[in-house]
Known about the structure:
Elements lengths: L16 H10 L35 H6 L5 E2 L3 E4 L3 E4 L7 E2 L10 E4 L2 E4 L4 E2 L1 E6 L13 E6 L13 H4 L9 E2 L2 H10 L4 E4 L8 H13 L3 E6 L5 H8 L4 E5 L5 H8 L4 H12 L3 E8 L7 H15 L5 E5 L14 H13 L5 E4 L9 E2 L6 E6 L2 E5 L15 E4 L6 E4 L10
Parallel strand pairs: 9-11, 11-12, 12-13, 13-14, 14-15, 15-16
Antiparallel strand pairs: 1-6, 2-3, 3-4, 5-6, 7-10, 8-9, 17-18, 18-19, 20-21
Helix pairs in contact: 4-5, 6-8, 9-10
Amino acid sequence: xxxxxxxPAWAGAAYxxxxxxxxxxxxxxxxxxxxxxxxxxxPEAGPFRDPFTRPAVPALPREEAVAKQxxxxxxxxxxxLPGDEVQCELCPTLCRLRDGERGQCxxxxxxxxxxxxxxxxxxxxxHVDPIEKKPLHxxxxxxxxxxxxxxGCNLGCVFCQNWEISQAFPEDAPFLLRSPEEAxxxxxxxxxPSIAYTYTEPAVFFEYMLDCARLARAxxxxxxxxxxxxxxxxxxxxxxxxxxxxNVDLKGFSERFYAAYxxxxxxxxxxxxxxxxxxxxxxxxxxxxVPGGNDDPGEIxxxxxxxxxxxxxxxxxxxxxxxxxxxxxxxxxxxxxxxxKAREIALAEGLRYVYIGNAAHADxxxxxxxxxxxxxxxxxxxxxxxxxxxxxxCPACGARIPGVWPGAEPGSVVTVPVDEPAPGGK
Length: 426
């Protein structure tokens, strides 16, 4: 997956230096950081420090949660069952919980037959990032995005770069309390045109994300969801109404890989991509290539073919370099030739905007016009060196580029859907 590690707090915003100092004092800036339900089979290969099984999540008595000042908020999307049990219906894991038990995400708990979220407004990461870091290459290029996360994740990726916060119990993680009103105000103060719910898996702080997103939308601030896509359809469609963009981390293209490496399933993620397209949310896809795990050329070809057919050939795809992290200490980083070959496969399968992330590559981060081939956006790392896109179009041939772009008038934007037909099939 892409490098989604929290960066230096409030980078480039000197007037928020006091906030950065506060973050440093409580230890948030020390978070290194990328992301990541029932038991899954152990991986077939042997790249792990120990065979991976998701450990049982310990119960959390209510008095302990209160004593630890956890942010209890009644959770959405659940069904009450006899005997004070509840069925969480937020994500495909569908945890069934007895009194005091919490879900595999670690942050949703049953107390006396009522499901609560433990992390409402309890931020473990709060930063200003370049939008390219999410990564989003077709969404307000070179803009800053206010980026926030709470603890927890509903996947168990063994290669997670942000495992210190995604796999943390909320009572163990340093935090800042931010109401939705405060979070949106911070974004406005930092002059960020968008807020990203990111770093861990924002689905597990659904209620807080939704409240923030509604307030942001009302104030003209856009909303970005950086996600593994593991969310059930009903909550997803509710959230999509206030989303402007999403980067979906498609971990691989086989149920085998999802079961062995992520303790999850592929099919719900593919359905998330389809729903986001239906809901007219700008979508980009990231695929972290893990050597020996999901880098088979046939699997890459099948994934690209599915994306081109079901989401559209103009959906941006980011192949990202894997680096050993969390429970995986081998293999080593993805070879550059593997990333280059994957990009060639994607282009051959008809995808028009294919990028390489977390690695130096001559054209890996450059946006080319699919109509005439002109270089439109030059990047180095997360930084934009030049942008020739004019109100969503190529200045040479007039081809419209899928994405969300600054408009001709100050403060305006032009949205070009990824499924908009292109002249000449480009």
